[in-house]
Amino acid sequence: MKRNVKRITGSTRALTRGALIAALYVGLCYVSTVFGLSSGAIQFRIAEVLCILPLFMPEAIAGLFIGCILSNIIAGCVLWDIIFGSIATLIGALGAYALRNLPKKLKWMTTLPNLFSNMIIVPFVLMYAYGVEAGFFALSLSVGIGELVCGVIGGTVLYYAMSDAKILK
């Protein structure tokens, strides 16, 4: 009987953490949206810093995906952006989780799947869903710069801050 209680507690804890990550992603995207930085050809989504979290907990994958869906809906994005932009985040989160066993000095590389998935998928969304007339490579570069700053650099800083503080251990 006690064993079932522990299992329920563990899954409840994971569900709660996933929901909190989704809410935090939405909140951080809202801050970026207020400053006009969360969508368009130039994107600096502060929430992308959270894409490192699958290294610490697998429930972050669902939290990031759901948070991205909700953020895109709240920001008034078109359906194709809601779908494919969120899939880009899901691919990035799954990639980060898949690379979680890298040595500590290489953990920054777990941010790269999110960078690349957004650099490949988001330019197509911008071109075909929003009619942005810049070429694929120009849009890929502009999206990539935002992901590099927020996701790679910010995510790496968050990772080392969390691991040095021994959060979740």
Q: Which properties best describe this structure?
A:
169 residues, mainly alpha, Arp2/3 complex 21 kDa subunit ARPC3, 0% strand
Overview of this structure, please?
There is one protein chain. By secondary structure, the protein is mainly α. The chain has a single domain, classed as Arp2/3 complex 21 kDa subunit ARPC3 (Orthogonal Bundle). The protein contains five helices and no strands. The protein has helices spanning 2-34, 59-74, 79-98, 112-128, 136-164. It starts with a helix and ends in a 5-residue tail after the last helix.
Q: Globular, elongated, flat, extended or rod-shaped: what is the shape?
A: globular
Number of domains: 1
Instruction: Give the termini distance in whole angstroms.
Output: 27 Å
The helix fraction, in percent, is 55-70%
In the CATH hierarchy, the architecture is: Orthogonal Bundle
Helix count equals 5
Indicate the radius of gyration in whole angstroms. Answer: 16 Å
Could you name the CATH class? Mainly Alpha
Low-confidence runs of at least 5 consecutive residues: none
> How would you characterize the largest beta sheet?
none
> Mean of the pLDDT scores?
89
Q: How many DSSP-defined strands?
A: 0
Proportion of residues in β-strands: under 5%
Structural class call reads mainly alpha
Give me the secondary-structure topology:
Blueprint: H1 2-34, H2 59-74, H3 79-98, H4 112-128, H5 136-164
Helix pairs in contact: 1-2, 2-3, 3-4, 4-5
Task: Please give a quick description of this structure.
This protein is mainly α and 169 residues long. It has helices spanning 2-34, 59-74, 79-98, 112-128, 136-164.
